[in-house]
Write a structure and sequence with these properties.
The structure is a homodimer. In chain A, the strands form 2 sheets. A 6-stranded parallel sheet of chain A has the order 3-2-1-4-5-6. The N and C termini of chain A lie far apart (45 Å). In chain A, helix 4 packs parallel to helix 5 and helix 7 packs across helix 11. The first copy, chain A, has 2 domains: 172 residues, Rossmann fold, CATH 3.40.50; 112 residues, Orthogonal Bundle (6-phosphogluconate dehydrogenase C-terminal fold), CATH 1.10.3660. Chain A has 13 helices and 9 strands. Helix content of chain A is 49%, strand content 12%. Chain A is an alpha/beta fold. Chain A is globular. The complex binds NADP nicotinamide-adenine-dinucleotide phosphate (2 copies). The site of one NADP nicotinamide-adenine-dinucleotide phosphate (NAP) has 26 residues of chain B, from helix 1 and strand 7. Chains A, B: Keywords: Amino-acid biosynthesis, Aromatic amino acid biosynthesis, NAD, Oxidoreductase, Tyrosine biosynthesis. Chains A, B: This is prephenate dehydrogenase. Chains A, B: Belongs to the prephenate/arogenate dehydrogenase family. Chains A, B: Its EC number is 1.3.1.12.
């Protein structure tokens, strides 16, 4: 494939950045990949496994002369990082991020991006429950959407180039309004995560059912929630602190509907339950047809012999 | 392996019964497997794919001379079925069921089981989102728990034989008190399913986010919920109608905790969120260590090329 950037700087070397490193290499999309992370430990691991062409100790060094800078750190850390790298950005470079929330990141980062540098916020809708520099793999973005939310004044060429990079990593790219992104993600990601965390918390708290029972008998549905609730606590704290309004709106709708179903259970209204449970199947079919999930039973989990 | 029953009658030929048929055959556990289902269509499919040794048109015929009778139909259908087969059960035979709720099934079935027939209610904690006679497979019960809830007066020999059957199909077997079963399952299965159905319903209902957006951007967490919410509506209606009390108790705890987290989001209490999200990871580790789920990212879902 074509090289799209001479030098890419990855700020943060966790799941997303390490997956990008693998995918850019596979596609020959970057001339040089320079990486950095907050801790010496992560930088050491990155060096050991040869994740980047070069691992440097500071973000300022990493962005020097980079054509593309990717902020791949928790949402709550974006502002300080933007302030730190702002003065070192090369004129004409593009800055992007991969944060799961967009309004807060735009507000935090944009003020620190100097004139002549393009800021194109982004979000790959792909992830796993694992984190850190060893968790990345080149296929993570394959057939998944990456949403870019550039403002109306951004030049076309840098947007097209960044789009080509994500496509080169296997992603489908869409652009969207910042606020709409945060609402859509509150529905498809943030609220589901909060609910999963809550369900696992409830199970953990119960006195009358032990943790060991919960663990043994988890295959009946619960274990799916525990995967989601095993995601990185820092990342998710930052998501909820930074997408308050939309999450609270969707949570309000959620509790409203939950109360209606709860009432149907209490009053024994089987018809309402049946109709509700029937209606929700169509969305699943849509997701499988759109290639966004597999139809193999239980996601095709490997069956582990005792 | 050893043949444990000369003749097994499967009443209902859906996911669970068809998986049992495959698993019993693999293990040579039954001399003859006789099956029946409500609809001519299902019986025809079962004949076509050779699911049983014999498919008969009525439950009365199926249970005649059977040493083990398995009720593998929705919980709400158990009472009528028990009334229908009661007079035809062979003295000394064992009747079991696979219903997801136990108190209601015991109350519905026990009165119709004649003296001299052993009734041992059961529940395999294994399933998928698919249903019907074609959805079964021999490995479904592998390394999963089956819970038996015999009452204190049941003879040991029939319990041991039924235990051996489930073990021969790959399951781990435990016995438990009827009420405790229903509470444990309310936590590990029933409430998670209701929550998943609700979340998918909310997403489907929203005006400001289209169904097509929900589908496209589902990989960020939501799609996991849609798999659970794709399960059979009849089965789940019956579960909630028949495990009211325990489900409502756990739902009460759930909304309580959800409100606490909602409040933490509203007030920006990052510490509380972080602590909560950290605590829930331990249960996931326990489940993976106990062999009840895989640690492969995203359950090891196949990555589908566009
Ligand atoms: N995981 C997902 O499913 C997913 C999906 C889409 C988008 N995202 C977004 O992608 C971003 C990165 O997530 P990830 O999953 O790649 O996380 P990760 O695996 O936990 O890695 C996070 C990286 O950020 C660094 N970091 C953490 N706190 C920092 C701070 N205060 N200042 C500077 N660097 C800091 C970490 O450095 P050390 O290793 O040295 O601690 C690490 O290299 C987040 O904004 C997240 O919202 C995540
Ligand atoms: N699916 C799971 O994950 C799971 C796990 C553990 C336990 N269970 C329990 O196992 C039982 C069967 O579930 P399944 O998943 O095997 O269901 P399924 O695939 O939907 O099959 C249900 C079977 O029951 C028959 N049936 C439905 N309504 C009936 C009625 N009113 N009278 C007589 N027969 C009727 C159906 O006959 P037709 O095909 O002719 O309609 C079909 O053969 C349920 O009690 C469920 O709670 C399910």
């Amino acid at each position: 494939m074509t090289q799209l950037y001479d030098r890419v700087a990855l700020i943060g070397l966790g799941l997303i950045a390490s997956s990008m490193a693998h995918a850019m290499r596979r596609g020959g999309l970057a001339g040089e990949i320079v990486g950095t992370a907050r801790s010496a430990e992560t930088r050491e691991i990155a060096r050991e496994i040869g994740l980047c062409d070069r691992v440097v100790d500071t973000a300022a060094e990493a962005v020097a002369d980079a054509d593309l800078v990717v902020l791949a750190i928790p949402v709550g850390a974006m502002e300080d990082m933007a302030r730190e790298i702002g003065p070192h950005l090369k004129p004409g470079a593009t800055v992007t991020d991969v944060g799961s929330v967009k309004r807060a990141v735009v507000d935090a980062v944009a003020p620190h991006v100097p004139e002549g540098v393009h800021f194109i916020p982004g979000h790959p809708l792909a992830g796993t429950e694992h984190s850190g520099p060893r968790s990345g793999f080149a296929e993570l973005f394959e057939n998944r959407f990456t949403i870019l939310v550039p403002d109306g004044n951004t030049a076309m060429e840098p947007i097209e180039r960044l789009t080509a990079l994500w496509q080169g990593m296997g992603a489908l790219v869409e652009t969207m309004d910042v606020e709409h992104h945060d609402l859509v993600l509150a529905v498809t990601s943030h609220t589901p995560h909060l609910i999963a965390y809550t369900m696992v918390g409830v199970a953990d708290d119960l006195r009358r059912v032990t943790d060991s029972e919960v663990i043994k008998y988890s295959a009946a549905g619960f274990r799916d929630f525990t995967r989601i609730a095993a995601s990185d606590p820092t990342m998710w704290r930052d998501v909820f602190l930074n997408n308050k309004e939309a999450t609270l709106e969707i949570l309000g709708r959620f509790t409203e509907e939950l109360f209606a179903l709860q009432r149907a259970i209490r009053t024994g209204d089987g018809e309402q339950l049946f109709d509700y449970f029937t209606r929700t199947r169509a969305i699943r079919r849509g997701i499988v047809e759109a290639g966004q999930d597999t139809d193999v039973p239980n996601f095709g989990r490997p069956v582990k012999k005792p």
